[in-house]
Amino acid sequence: MTEHAVNPALHALNTRRSMKLLRAPAPKPDELAQILQAAMSAPDHGALRPWRFVKIQGEAIGRFADVALDAVKRSGDPRMTPEKEKAVRSWMAGVPLFLALAAKIDHSSKVREQEQVLATGAAVMNILNATHMLGYGAFWSTGLGTYVEEVQEILGLDPLDYRFMGYLAIGTPACAVPPVTRPDYQDFITEWTGEPVQAG
């Protein structure tokens, strides 16, 4: 196989990975502005800009942990054991910045809801890539009551109009980032040549 020079931008994309163990510092305000501006370049049918982000940082993280975990327990989620709650609180205490993620659905638009949610997911992916390119780490989590409506409402995201998509934890990796082996893209692609394909 012929060796090709690796484009720096593609190298950054290919070396990004989720980092759950994070610590301060978070991106500086000007860096966060660049990161969030990258979200604005996401593909977006109808130019609806459905993505919405709620920033949670500083002392607000502890307050949010209190109300969100209480809501999760009230929901009856059996996974929120005392041990799990302690672990979640400990993890959140170390993370300097959270972004809650949501798609604001335009119910009057001809653009299907699915496409509006996909546009928001693309915006989040841009945030993840930009965060990595600036030397920080991030982790997309749905573990803190993402599917509990009360948690969504606490953040001002009415479930009638928003599809809540979890949180990005953002900060500085708290440990060395080990390399990861990715699958070969060729295992995930076929070519259609004009002949009908038999299902199965």
**Low-confidence sequence ranges:** none
Strand content: 15-25%
**Residue share in helices?**
25-40%
- Which class best fits the helix and strand makeup? alpha+beta
Main sheet: strands, sense, barrel = 5 strands, antiparallel
- Could you state the oligomeric state of the chains shown? single chain
Rg, Cα atoms, Å: 19 Å
List SSEs in N-to-C order: HEHEHHEHEHE
Number of strands: 5
User: pLDDT average, as an integer?
Assistant: 94
Say which CATH homologous superfamily is assigned. Answer: NADH Oxidase
> What sort of overall outline do the alpha carbons produce when their principal axes are compared?
globular
CATH topology: NADH Oxidase
Can you tell me the CATH class?
Alpha Beta
Number of helices: 6
CATH architecture: 3-Layer(aba) Sandwich
Give the termini distance in whole angstroms: 33 Å
- Work out the count of structural domains: 1
3D structure, described in words:
The protein is α+β, with helices and mostly antiparallel strands. It has a single domain (19-176), classed as NADH Oxidase, CATH 3.40.109. The chain contains six helices and five strands, in the order αβαβααβαβαβ. Strands 1, 2, 3, 4 and 5 form a five-stranded antiparallel beta sheet that branches. Helix 2 runs antiparallel to helix 5 (113-133) and helix 3 runs antiparallel to helix 4. The two termini are 33 Å apart. The mean pLDDT is 94. GO terms for molecular function: oxidoreductase activity. Belongs to the nitroreductase family. This is Putative NAD(P)H nitroreductase. Keywords: Flavoprotein, FMN, NAD, NADP, Oxidoreductase. Its cofactor is FMN.
